[in-house]
Specification:
The complex is a heterodimer of chains A (428) and B (146). By secondary structure, chain A is α/β, with parallel strands linked by helices. Chain A folds into two domains: 141 residues, Aspartate Aminotransferase, domain 1; 263 residues, Type I PLP-dependent aspartate aminotransferase-like (Major domain) (Aspartate Aminotransferase, domain 2, 3-Layer(aba) Sandwich), CATH 3.40.640.10. In chain A, 53% of the residues are buried. Chain B is α+β, with helices and mostly antiparallel strands. In chain B, helix 3 packs across helix 6 and helix 4 runs antiparallel to helix 6. In chain B, strands 1-2-3 form a three-stranded antiparallel β-sheet, with helices on one face. The longest helix of chain B has 24 residues. The chains are: A alpha/beta (428), B alpha+beta (146). Chains A and B meet through helix 11 of A and helix 1 of B.
């Protein structure tokens, strides 16, 4: 029943053929309709093959050892970093491999935290010192990963957390807050993981710079889905994860402008990140190695490099156009179902592919269960953005999110499933 | 179809017309439990009289499973001794966490057996237990304060 349609020039039959998991059935005999890529995306054979090839032919601990495998593994690892750098418009040394985006954001938060302790650090870390009276600014639509680390940083340093509120259509309300001379950090999502609203990055960066604050961009929902050039955006830091961009889990990336990474104290410490170690104390390697303590994830980084190759071959502009088209189908078909309310912008201006909604009279969990029974995988709940849901007075939403392998037919099945859920629960 | 196995008619009835809903006075303890994965919440009050569960009242925000199971809870435990109420709770919990292996004893958990199908869906077990855990917690609090 899933007739594959090509549009925007994408060969969806070929693309879907690259993702073995998409051909399985669920709940007995239902073809899988995977609309949960905002949580984690599926991986093409090219990524799985790259990991296997690396492990079967080059595997060794990177950045240590002088044998041939160690050289090859290090080359592969660094080649992956270079590919990612090209994708996001950065220099390779501006990218730190982390476990995931959450760790990347924590790495920045702990650079501030450790600097604020002030003992035994050089004068270059003074710019990261926070104390009472300083302000960290976030937004009400943040994923918990870009909120809780800042709450904790405030608790440790005495700084104050402030936030932009959210408009009725799920965008950052730029009129809701004025930055002050005490604002030190402005952290915000490039694209909301719930409303899919794309933030006015240039304006937020301009405001932050005007008061001397550093910007931290949560790029988890942007880098996997649209062309992103971090240098052009002018943000100071950005974090994203591999598993949302057709790559492996267990690998993420933190971007930091070179000048900042060079001045930052380390977060995790140990092997690989040192320059010189004596019993009395140690000095540290330049970035990015300073922030990659211990033997890092390697086949995962190589797999992420392959995912970047895969996305680049399609073209991020085409990926974005495809997902916007899917969002249009979702918005149009759901608009025809009475009682469905979209949480987020209902037009495609500055909007990505995720579509979150509530159904009057049927709880999101129950909608999700009916969809699951039809083979449609969506996310239900607060999607790690609890304050945003509170802002809208709701406990949970249903979220459909897409990637390059989804078809318009799959998305249209969503609205049919929602109708079935209303019928099942006796809601007219 | 599996959907009907999970959402038995009894569950849907309790969901549409929940028993004992609303917060009432007097009460000895009030608890607030949340399901952190989905944001569902229940505020639940318990009134004991001697060793008898005199009243259970609640306000909840959640899916049909959590609402219906809290409704069934009030039917089963109000008027029972604390010891008997906890025996019912343990029996319900055992079934709910059994991944479909325990059918549930209708003599003990009454309408609660309708939730046997829910136990096959690990993501929903917490929904089924939300009100029950809030009840357990509330009774423990009353006993501790006594």
């Amino acid at each position: 029943m899933t007739a594959v349609q090509a549009h925007e020039g994408l060969d969806l039959t070929a693309i879907r053929g690259d993702f073995p998991i998409l051909s399985r059935t669920v709940r007995e005999d239902r073809p899988l309709v995977y609309l949960d890529s905002g949580a984690t995306s599926q991986r093409p054979r090219q990524v799985l093959d790259a990991e296997r090839r690396f492990l079967e032919t080059h595997n060794a601990a990177v950045h240590r050892g002088a044998h041939q495998l160690a050289e090859e593994a290090t080359d592969d690892y660094e080649a992956a970093r270079a590919k990612i750098a090209v994708l996001v418009g950065a220099e390779p040394e501006e990218l730190v491999f982390t476990k995931n985006a959450t760790e990347g954001i924590n790495l920045v938060a702990y650079a501030f935290s450790n600097s604020s302790i002030r003992t035994g650090l050089g004068p270059e870390t003074e710019r990261f010192v926070l104390g009472p009276g300083d302000e960290i600014v976030v937004t009400e639509l943040e994923h918990h990963a870009n909120l809780v680390p800042w709450q904790e940083l405030c608790r440790r340093t005495g700084a104050t957390l402030r936030w932009y509120s959210v408009t009725d259509d799920g965008r950052i309300d730029l009129d809701s807050l004025e930055l002050t001379e005490r604002t030190r950090i402005v952290a915000f999502a490039h694209q909301s993981n719930v409303t899919a609203a794309i933030a006015p990055v240039a304006e937020l960066v301009r405001r932050a710079r005007a008061v001397g604050a550093l910007t931290v961009l949560d790029a988890c929902q942007s880098v996997p889905h649209m062309p992103v050039n971090l240098t052009e955006l002018g943000v100071d830091f950005a974090a994203f994860s591999g598993h949302k961009m057709l790559g492996p889990s267990g690998v993420g990336v933190l971007y930091g402008r070179t000048e900042l990474l060079e001045a930052m104290p380390p977060f995790l410490t140990g092997g690989s990140m040192i320059e010189m170690v004596r019993m009395e104390g140690s000095t540290y390697a330049p970035p990015p190695q300073r922030f990659e303590a211990g033997v890092p994830m390697t086949s995962q980084a190589v797999g992420l490099g392959a995912a970047v190759d895969y996305l680049s071959a399609i073209g991020m502009d085409r990926v974005f156009a495809h997902e916007q088209e899917l969002a249009r189908v979702a918005l149009d078909t759901l608009a025809e179902v009475p009682g469905v309310r979209i949480v987020g912008p209902t037009d495609l201006t500055d909007r990505g592919g995720a579509v979150a909604f509530v159904v009057d009279g049927v709880h999101a969990h129950d909608v999700g269960q009916v969809l699951d029974d039809r083979g449609i995988a969506v996310r239900v709940g607060h999607h790690c953005a609890w304050p945003l849901h509170r802002r809208f007075g709701i406990a949970a939403t249903v979220r459909a999110s897409f990637h390059v392998y989804n078809t318009a037919d799959e998305v249209a099945q969503l609205a049919e499933g929602v109708r079935a859920a209303k019928e099942f629960f006796g809601v007219a | 179809m599996k959907l009907e196995q999970m959402y038995q008619e009894i569950i849907l009835d309790h969901y549409r017309q929940p028993h004992g809903a609303g917060l009432r006075e007097p009460f000895d303890a009030e608890t607030h439990h949340v399901n952190p994965t989905c944001g569902d919440e229940v505020t639940l009050r318990v009134k004991l009289e001697g060793d008898e569960v005199k009243d259970v009242s609640y306000e909840s925000l959640g899916c049909s499973i959590s609402q219906a199971s809290t409704s069934v809870l009030t039917d089963l435990v109000v008027g029972k001794s604390v010891q008997e109420a906890f025996r019912i709770l343990e029996s319900f919990q055992e079934m709910a966490q059994s991944r479909g292996k325990v059918a549930g004893d209708e003599d003990v958990i009454g309408d609660g057996v309708a939730f046997a199908g829910v136990s096959k869906y690990p993501a929903r077990v917490k929904c089924a237990l939300l009100g029950w855990m809030a009840f357990k917690d509330a009774v423990v609090r009353v006993k501790e304060e006594a």
